[in-house]
Amino acid sequence: MKNSRLALKHPKVESLERRLFLKQSLSIGALSLLSGCDLTGDENVQQVLEGMSRWNDRAQAWLFDPKKLAPEYPESMITRPFPFNGYYPESDVRIIDETDYKLQLGGLIKEQKPWRLPELYALPQVSQVTRHICVEGWSAIGKWSGVRFSDFLQRVGADLTAKYVGFNCGDDYYASIDMATALHPQTLLAFRFADQILPPKYGFPMKLRIPTKLGFKNPKHITEIFVVNDNPGGYWEDKGYNWFSGN
Amino acid sequence: MANWIKVHPLVVRITHWINALAILVMVASGWRIYNASPLFESFTFPDALTLGGWLAGALQWHFAAMWLLALNGLVYVVYGIVSGHFRRRLLPISPGAILRDVSRALRGRLAHEDLSVYNAAQRAAYFVLILALVVMILSGLAIWKPVQLQELAALMGGYEGARLLHFFAMSLVVFIVVVHVVMVALVPRTFPTMITGRLRRSS
């Protein structure tokens, strides 16, 4: 502390002010410590934060350009090995039996006949090499192939003016997205990863690949797709993650 | 009657304290978000210094306070330019004067007789802080919207580049804030001035 050399004219006032300042800065510090545990748990604070999250849903829907494409990368940039991610450890990955598997359709969809895998594989397929961005912050580049989701929704006669598309999954995960994102040209019902049939850890038999959304908005092991006008929520969204979570 | 001089305009005082709160929330929640997937494997922030309790809570704080930070910052910058506050208080600024005043400050010999005039070290610090906050907001936008704002992200080397830049801009902001708070502790009469806006003229 070299302030004694600052040619103070009123040393007593100065030291009083300093004490006051230290007291104030201590209480600011105490407040910030408190906030770590108590503030977030407070019901009113939680309500404000939830309200802001809904506001951010609207802001992101407004920012979303249905024609803007996510950057695509050369295959040489694919991240190997591509990281596993889920709400359970990799050792608990569900194995979905191919022979019994049927994709169920529901809600505002005209043709609700279930789909078997060979029928889905026979649909026109496209590929993309895009960046998967996790809500945690890390990212990895992968290659996914499958049917354009907008083509599929049109083919089954989904009400494209409805607000939401919901998903139920073979690993008890559930998710939902806005219709605008469902119809984005890079949103794929993906059956392959790196040109191989999706291995269980990447979501066999299918994953919705959405490069315009964070990773947790890309459900794996999909068993049911439904179109609705009431937001069905999602596994992580119902725990506090932002619902829109667009990139 | 005492002789008062006006030091800080009302807009500057209000935006200063809102900014202080916004930065505290952004940094504390940002550290918790960082901890979910550390950029530097061997380095995480102590949980006790973070806000939000877990990743989702921290993200809620971060994406709520970002509006406060951005809107308040916008008011401050527009005011600073339109009113001439930046020109009057931050200019002129020269490398020679900055070196001189920083070296004086380090030796504890920087005079603060007239608090209504910033010395060159202050001018440089405040200017760099404003710049760092602009970079932090832009890199934050690039991380938040790496597809919709991909042109902005591309300027920073893409998503991962923007993440690094966001981290380093945060580090610079925290460094300047720490120095700022230490300086206030060393010259405590500057503290009430940022609340009342005025200072009793010393004899």
Descriptive keywords:
heterodimer, A: 247 residues, alpha+beta, Sulfite Oxidase, Chain A, domain 2, five-stranded antiparallel sheet, 9 strands, disordered N terminus, B: 203 residues, mainly alpha, Fumarate Reductase Cytochrome B subunit, two-stranded antiparallel sheet, 2 strands
Question: Could you characterize the architecture of this molecule?
Answer:
By secondary structure, chain A is α+β, with helices and mostly antiparallel strands. Chain A is built from five helices and nine strands. In chain A, strands 2, 3, 6, 7 and 8 form a five-stranded antiparallel sheet that branches. A four-stranded mixed sheet of chain A has the order 1-9-4-5. In chain A, strand 4 and strand 5 form a beta hairpin. Chain A starts with 10 loop residues before the first helix and ends in a 19-residue tail after the last strand. By secondary structure, chain B is an all-alpha fold. Helix content of chain B is 69%, strand content 3%. Chain B has a single domain, classed as Fumarate Reductase Cytochrome B subunit (Up-down Bundle). A two-stranded antiparallel sheet of chain B has the order 1-2.
- CATH class of chain B equals Mainly Alpha
- Helix tally of chain A equals 5
Backbone CA Rg of chain B: 19 Å
Biggest interface, chains and residues, is: A-B, 55 and 48 residues
Number of strands of chain B: 2
Q: Based on DSSP secondary structure assignment, what is the total number of beta strands of chain A? A: 9
Structural class of chain B: mainly alpha
Radius of gyration of chain A over alpha carbons? 25 Å
The amount of beta strand of chain A, in percent, is 15-25%
- What is the annotated CATH architecture of chain B? Up-down Bundle
Query: What average pLDDT do the residues of chain B reach?
Result: 91
Low-confidence segments of chain A, given as residue ranges, are 1-14
Tell me the name of the CATH homologous superfamily of the largest domain in chain A.
Answer: Oxidoreductase, molybdopterin-binding domain
User: What kind of sheet is the major sheet of chain B?
Assistant: 2 strands, antiparallel
Shape of chain A: globular
At CATH's second level, what is the architecture of the largest domain in chain A?
A: Alpha-Beta Complex
